[in-house]
Amino acid sequence: MNDTSNIAFLTTSDGQDWQASLAEAAARWRKAGGSVVGVLSATPDAQGSCRVGYLRDIASGQKFSIQLDNPPEGTNCHLDTAGMDAACQFLLSQISTADVVILSKFGKTEITQHGLWAAFLTAAEAGKPIITTVSPRQRNIWLQFAPGACELTPDAHAIDLWWQTARSRLAA
Length: 172
Description:
By secondary structure, the protein is of the alpha/beta class. It has a single domain (7-171), classed as P-loop containing nucleotide triphosphate hydrolases (Rossmann fold, 3-Layer(aba) Sandwich). Helix content is 36%, strand content 20%. The protein has helices spanning 18-31, 81-92, 108-111, 117-125, 139-145, 156-171, and strands at 7-11, 36-42, 54-57, 63-65, 100-106, 130-134, 150-152. A 7-stranded mixed β-sheet has the order 4-3-2-5-6-1-7, with helices on both faces. The protein is globular and about 50 Å long. The model has no long low-confidence stretch (mean pLDDT 87).
């Protein structure tokens, strides 16, 4: 894999709308003329410890349901990995022409090389700037994938500064 210093992440914690931070960044960068691709998650009022809803493609607005009506036997997680795989497949063809790739989360499905794993790998191998969120539980595994990744604070200034630096590095 290429140098991972153009990869950034926000470590999630309760009480912060991480997807909104990424969506706002995507809107700013697109308004400035950037080719921004990726997927962001949205969570309806779901019950249980595993709250999911859908992934929305940034470029097209297409939604991919990632919520099962009923969780599989032995779990209370409603995550539909087939929906995640469909969103990932839809996204893959967009990565080669992107200036930046925003991926909603590096989580337990990506650790098992499912979900958005192929998008993370494709973007990283292409040297594309990537920004995502990572839970504290997955942080060490994430850093094995992207050891040079930059951890950002969830404010617009820090996120935009990372993007300006990554963009400058690519132009050089």
